[in-house]
Amino acid sequence: LGASAFEEWGWRIPFLISSLYLIFSIFLRMQMQESQAFQNLKLNGGLSRSPMKETFLVWDNLKKVLICLFGGILGQAIIISMSNLYLLYFLTQILKVDSFAANLCLSISLFFYVLFVLYFGRLSDRVGRRKLIVTGCFLACISIYPVYQGLTWSANAQLAKAQIQTPVFLKAPLSTCHFQWMESRQEIPRTLCDKAKRALINLGMSYRQMNIPQGQDSFIEMGHDRIQLNSNESIQSQLQMLQKKYFYPEKANMQEFSYIKVICLISYLLFISAMLLGPLACFLVEMFPTRIRYTGMSFPYHFANGFFGGFLPAICFGIVTYTGNIYSGLWYGIILSGLSFMVSFLFLPETKNKNIH
User: Fold this and answer.
1) How far apart are CA 34 and CA 296, in angstroms?
2) Contact of 120 with 56, CB cutoff 8 Å
3) pLDDT 10s digits, 236-269
4) Is residue 354 part of a domain?
5) In whole angstroms, what is the distance from residue 64 CA to residue 83 CA?
6) Domain boundary pick from 212, 245, 278
């Protein structure tokens, strides 16, 4: 499909195809039986009459929810977004990698991811859940930044070299530069500084912002050239001219693109994600008593993945646009992974061999 056809109606096709998976999922769910422990509890009248109240108003249960939320689940939510959603955005929008090549590398890596999850799930039955979760959070915290730097050099080395050889400076009053939450066609930058930031990041250019007194003319400095920021000229078109002059690539050179290195780097992030996801399901089941298990394990899992993981791409983009560094958004994931590591290390219990009945 062409770009216009995809934007008009083609985007619906993946959703229609996914309906087949929905039907299959419903079929599987209807075939599942409740656990024997749940059936016995139901038969004896031992189920909670108000699972929400018992989960969130009883401190022992609420404490388990908070440990699960800010422990292993937070780390899992961050690293899966960093190795999937944001990674694909970083490759295609920041590094300007061909979308087919980026999706191909991710698809191959996801095949290995399935094997990694199975391996770590089984390994947790031998070594325990806690060791894998703590180790996974630690590796996520120390690995995200260098892996993304490695992706830049493996996917678009020319861009990495240009950023070193010809740094870009944005000189404008800080009061005129605002935080932009996400890249959206409906979101119109409010000031010339905002427009300049958006244009620079859209071209994959890191920049350093420098404050100047209010009232002075704002400008972008690149090598020996300056672009005055005014409403009469297109910032984007002027930047594109300097982009060619100072060898900033418009797109990644696919002849220099290292498929093997990119796949290995993505697979490594997914390896860490699998280290967390593999033991996570068993860990959550073993953390909560049968009478409130579904409520207790569902809330932290869906909240962490929906809120912290779901908003990660938008927040990372906002941080990148505000600071001017294409790697600065990674600190959102690094800090939260570090928090998850600390909570897991200090408070996460070992649940292996726990009697869940």
Assistant:
1) 17
2) no
3) 888 888 988 898 998 999 999 999 999 999 999 9
4) no
5) 27
6) 245
